[in-house]
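Appendix B, Record 12. Input sequence as logged:
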Amino acid sequence: MVFFKAVFKLILCLVGASTILVLIQGCSKGGEMSDKHGVKGGIEYDAIRTKMQTGPFRLNIYDYRTTTDAPPETVFYYFHGQGGDESSYERAMLFLHEYIRDKAPSSVVVSFSAGPEAMLIPKNSAQSSGLVAAFINDVLMKLDQTHHFSASKKILIGTSMGGTSLSYVFFNHPQYFHGAVIISAGHYPFSVFAKDVELEKFIKENETFTLREQLGRLVGVTPRLKGIKSVLSVQKRFFGSESDWENVFIFNTMKKADKRQPVYISIGKWDSLGLYRGNLMLSQKAKAAGYDVTYDEINGGHGAFDKSRVIQFVASLLEK
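Logged structural output:
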C-alpha cells in the first residue's frame, strides 16, 4: 500500500506538470492555480518615499503628487499578507502603481505593517489583539493631522492575511472609508478554535478541488486540511477564547454601511487554504449590511485575482 501511494503521488506530479492540466502549477505545494499577478523585483518611483513609524506600525508612504501644496484626492491603504512588511506594496502591487501613476497622480499610497504575522483584530482578552483601534488612532487619524489627509478619499486594499485585517477595520469603521478591495481574506464560517473533526466535515461538505487534489484525496493526501490549520494557528493568537472570537468575529459584528460603500471581494475557487466558502459568506453578509458588493470568483488558487477587474473597480471608486 505504501509503495502504491508513493507511485500514485509521483503520477500526480507528472500529471500536474502535463499539458493536459495546463492550469495546474506543476507540483507546487497545495496544487494552487498559477497566480496572474506575480511580480518580481521592486518598483522604481520618481515620487517621494517617506518611511516613518507610528505606534506599533511601520509605514512606507508613496506620494505620486508632483506638488504637495494641496491634499491628495485619494489615499490608498495597503494591508500586506503573511510574511510581508511595509515594503510589500512594491513587490505585490506593480499593476496598481502603474495605474495610479498614469491615471490618478494626485494620490498617495500608505503601505504599513505591524509585523509579518500581525493581524488587526478588535480588542479582546488576547494580549496581541487591539490593533484595529491602534490603526484608526495611530495611522489613520495621525496621518490626517500630520499629512493633511482628512479631506481625501480613503480606499483600503488587502490580500490574504491583509484582507482579513482590512475586513475588521473597514466593516467596524465604515464611516472613515470610501471603499475597499479584499482579496483572499482569511475568513471561515467556523471558529478559529474548531477541532479537526469539524474541519474535516467542513472540507468534505463545502470545498471544491482541482483534479490533482481529487486524485490525491484517493490516497489520503489532504493538503487543504493542513492549509486551514496553518491559517487558524496564526489567528488563534489574536483571540483569547471561544467567547472572544464570537464577540468580535466580523460576521457577527459587521456594522451597517452608512454610505453604501462599494466593496470588491475576490476569491479563487480552488483556494488551497479553504477560504472560498468564507469569502462567499463575507460577500453575502456585506451585501445584507447595505454595502455595494462586487463579488468575483476566480479560476485560481490562493491570492489569485484579475488585475483588470481590480483596476476597473478602483477606477469606479475614483469617479464617485
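Residues 131-146 form the longest helix (16 residues).
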